[in-house]
């Protein structure tokens, strides 16, 4: 027998059929997407022993989950336990005796039941898409005989059948304290929190410890949201003040081909720096939310959904014309100006967490003009005997808003990625996904003022605390969607 429990720390053994989603459930619940820490595999019998997975906050273990082997011979094991009970009804004593005396014949069943004999609660994971056969009924009976607090989780592995799910719920309801649905491949923060709250209902003796975990998890999420806001704010500021210059010799001015080549090189450098800023921000967000399997740079051949080279992107993302006009006017911008939103950039993330932006760094602007690309200083001399071209942000007033919208959507994409998934599939974003247009007008005005200061190269530090607070609230709203 192993010592699976420790003092007053509540423990729950996650049990079920091989590949029913036990380990994926734990991975999502504990935010572990690293196979070195928690192996998820399609190979039957991958989990061969009990793995202890502590839940720690501030270096203190508050809760413990146990990943167990799957049932291999449930019907035969049930009959053996009934034989041990003789003419009586099996109970905890017979389960304990079974784990001691039947290890050679039923090694997997004995190992998974050991923590329950010691006092762990039960989280039974089933796939309600499968028929309720005799082997499942045997598992349910064995777990009922343990007498431990029991929670059943329906973890659908495919499209659920309403009739099958009802049959599962009805049968589980006769043997378990609670029955809940928990999709390990889709569950987000709220579902994880509700699962822990369900444990409160079946294990009252450890209610205080479980409540501490729920409170700590909420505090951690608040902290992550603030860290994410800092990363996005830093990205926005650096992107808006970004300028790239290229000296122009006097002899180049009379050769159009040389000027065009310098312009092309300058544009490539500008957008390469912009992409680097974006990747840096995305990597920070992935670290904040403990994702190791998502790569910020994905094969462009798989990109879909969002293409910032398209005028459509600039028309559907960011603010509407009316909102831009209002925000610009209140913020001291060009009131009444006619904004051309048909400007596109193929730059904001050659390969991102959501795999939504195509590769390449070439700029595509209406009429072929470059963003704020000009010869500085007129005909006078700048930088010795030459002049300089400067590439800055696109002239479209929607540019900062598209940047912000894109990062809010990336944030949502990261939150939507359950840690129980092990695939590297591209997360797509539709053109209908956007957030900044739903901002309150006061928030839009505040951001517009701050954007304007950044575009001038002098970010308004006095407004930053308020901008930060509003960005944190914006991320909260994205989560709630």
Describe the protein.
The structure is a single chain. The chain contains 14 helices and eleven strands. The protein has 481 residues and is α/β, with parallel strands linked by helices. It folds into two domains: 192 residues, P-loop containing nucleotide triphosphate hydrolases (Rossmann fold, 3-Layer(aba) Sandwich); 258 residues, no CATH class. It has a six-stranded mixed β-sheet with strand order 2-3-1-4-5-6, sandwiched between helices. Strands 7-11-10 form a three-stranded antiparallel β-sheet, covered by helices on one side. Helix 8 packs antiparallel against helix 12. It starts with 10 loop residues before the first strand and ends with a helix. About 16% of the residues have low confidence.
Instruction: Report the portion of residues in β strands.
Output: 5-15%
- What sort of overall outline do the alpha carbons produce when their principal axes are compared? elongated
The overall number of domains is 2
The unreliable regions are 35-47, 298-308, 333-386
The whole-number mean of residue pLDDT values reads 78
Q: Which strand order spans the largest sheet, edge to edge or round the barrel?
A: 2-3-1-4-5-6
Q: What composes the largest sheet?
A: 6 strands, mixed
What level of helicity do the residues show? 40-55%
What is the distance, rounded to the nearest whole angstrom, between the alpha carbons of the first and last residues?
A: 47 Å
Kindly name the structural category: alpha/beta
Radius of gyration: 29 Å
């Amino acid at each position: 027998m192993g010592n699976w429990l420790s003092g007053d720390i509540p423990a729950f053994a996650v049990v079920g059929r091989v590949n029913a989603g036990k380990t994926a459930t734990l991975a999502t619940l504990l935010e572990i997407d690293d196979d070195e820490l928690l192996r998820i595999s399609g190979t039957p019998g991958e989990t061969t022993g009990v793995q202890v997975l502590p839940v720690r906050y501030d270096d203190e273990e508050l809760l413990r989950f146990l990943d167990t082997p799957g049932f291999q011979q449930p019907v035969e094991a049930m009959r053996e336990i009934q034989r041990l009970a003789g003419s009586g009804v099996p109970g905890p004593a017979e389960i304990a005796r079974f784990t001691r005396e039947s290890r050679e014949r039923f090694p997997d069943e004995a190992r998974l039941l050991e923590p329950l004999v010691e006092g762990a609660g039960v989280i039974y994971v089933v796939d309600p898409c499968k028929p309720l056969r005799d082997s499942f009924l045997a598992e349910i009976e064995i777990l009922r005989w343990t007498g431990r607090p029991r929670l059943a989780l329906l973890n659908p592995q495919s499209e659920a059948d309403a009739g099958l799910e009802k049959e599962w719920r009805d049968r589980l309801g006769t043997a378990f304290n609670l029955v809940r649905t928990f999709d390990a491949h889709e569950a987000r923060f709220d579902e994880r929190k509700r699962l822990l709250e369900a444990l409160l209902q079946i294990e009252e003796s450890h209610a205080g410890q479980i409540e501490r975990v729920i409170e700590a998890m909420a505090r951690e999420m608040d902290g992550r949201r603030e860290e994410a806001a800092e990363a996005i704010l830093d990205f926005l500021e650096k992107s808006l003040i970004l300028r790239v210059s290229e000296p122009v010799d006097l002899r180049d001015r009379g050769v159009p081909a040389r000027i065009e080549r310098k312009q092309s090189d300058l544009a490539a450098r500008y957008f390469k720096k912009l992409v680097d800023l974006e990747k840096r921000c995305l990597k920070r967000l992935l670290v904040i939310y403990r994702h190791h399997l998502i790569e910020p740079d994905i094969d462009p051949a798989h990109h879909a959904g969002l293409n910032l080279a398209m005028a459509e992107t600039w028309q559907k993302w960011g603010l509407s014309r009316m909102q831009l006009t209002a925000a610009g006017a209140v913020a001291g911008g060009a009131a009444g100006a006619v904004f051309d939103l048909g400007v596109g950039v193929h730059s904001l993330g050659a390969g991102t967490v959501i795999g939504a932006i195509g590769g390449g760094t070439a700029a595509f602007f209406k009429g072929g003009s470059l963003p704020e690309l000009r010869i500085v200083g007129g005909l006078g001399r700048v930088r010795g005997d030459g002049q300089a071209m400067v590439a800055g942000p696109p002239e479209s007033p929607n540019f900062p808003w598209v940047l912000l919208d894109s990062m809010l959507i990336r944030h949502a994409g990261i939150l939507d990625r359950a840690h129980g998934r092990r695939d590297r599939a591209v997360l797509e974003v539709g053109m209908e996904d956007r957030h900044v247009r739903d901002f309150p007008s006061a928030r839009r005005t505040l951001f517009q003022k701050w954007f304007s200061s950044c575009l001038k190269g002098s970010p308004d530090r006095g407004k930053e605390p308020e901008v930060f607070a509003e960005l944190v609230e914006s991320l909260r709203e994205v989560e709630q969607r």
